[in-house]
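seq as requested:
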Amino acid sequence: YFKDAIMPQILEHGIWNGEYSFRSRSNKKIIVIAEWILHKDEAGNAKEISVTAIDITALKQSQEESNRFMQISNNSIAFIGISNLNREIFYLNKSMRNAFAIPDDADLSAYKPSYFYSEQGNKILEQAIKEMWKKEFWAGENEMQTPDGKIIPVMQTLLLIKDYSGKPQYISTSAINISDLKQKQSENIKIGNELRQLSIHLQNVIEEERATMAKEIHDEFGQNLVALSMNAAWLKTNLPNKDKKTEEVLNEQVSISVDAIQKSRLLFNSLRPYMLDEVGLVAAIRWHAQTLLKQSNIKVDIHSNVEDERFPKEISLCLYRIFQECLNNVVGHAKATNITIDVFKNKQTINMTIEDNGIGFDTTNVNIINSHGLLGIRERVYAQQGKYLLNSEIGKGTRIQVEIPLFNLDTDDDF
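struct tokens:
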């Protein structure tokens, strides 16, 4: 290149300057700004050529990196901007210019960062910048606003850029429009709320049907069983000249009637626990645990500070059904020898904890959608705006904690 392009110009014009490159002895390319000068003798004949060169390798590399950044930045859908430490903007990428209607030849220093944000977004920005100065980085959600008033929710990052000596030089920001994501989240929340309301409605329908069945069992089936039992007892007492076989049949009839009455009462209270209204939550839990575990080797410990207290029907029924589900799981699957049930009330909540010493399970491998018992517990708790926590460890048992608020969500008054 020197021989074919530069040398002829030196000989013709006596000088050439421009960008050139050398190779060092280690074959490293050195980019320079060079100036060649032709020196002549007194007769005007060409005598020698001198060259002066300034190494611009680092500058060229920086320029190439800058060009790559500009290319990537302008092709990005993210909003990207850079300002100095006084928040004077000197760069905005194409996406940001287009979104905020800023011409390519506009003086960017005339725009302040507050121009690009809503009122709420500017409050977030001020807090974000304070955090950025502490940590050199900030990331979070923010809210931008176009000149025509359109709100754009964004996921934004702020970065404090330093020079090689560690001195802060610039502030850069990048923000991704998450309007579509927010819309989908809003739709998902709406669908989730609708499904939850449907779940609550179905639970209420089931409870109403259970109450109807319980009433029929109590009013019709139960009364008939009592009548049969009384008739069998009368026959046993008043039938004269009974032979041994007749005596055995009557005794068996009385025994069957008493057993059927007990089972109908158990079924009645299982379908609709009227004991909740009559004796309260803790007493109903105590009765059901003792009845269900009468024939088992499982020991039950119940502790409470609300033995005689009554709660709103919805809360009592919620906790009682959760207790029933947990007890059924313990009896059917846990292989436990001890269950501890704690029911305690504080000023704002009522809390129930059910813990067993059974075989436990891996909670990370539980598909709650297919585990209808756990799903039912969760939905009952959420229907009361409560919280629940499930802990289980293989070989060490399971613990379920439920917390239900004791206040009216509409008025915030205590019950």
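The chain has a mean pLDDT of 84.
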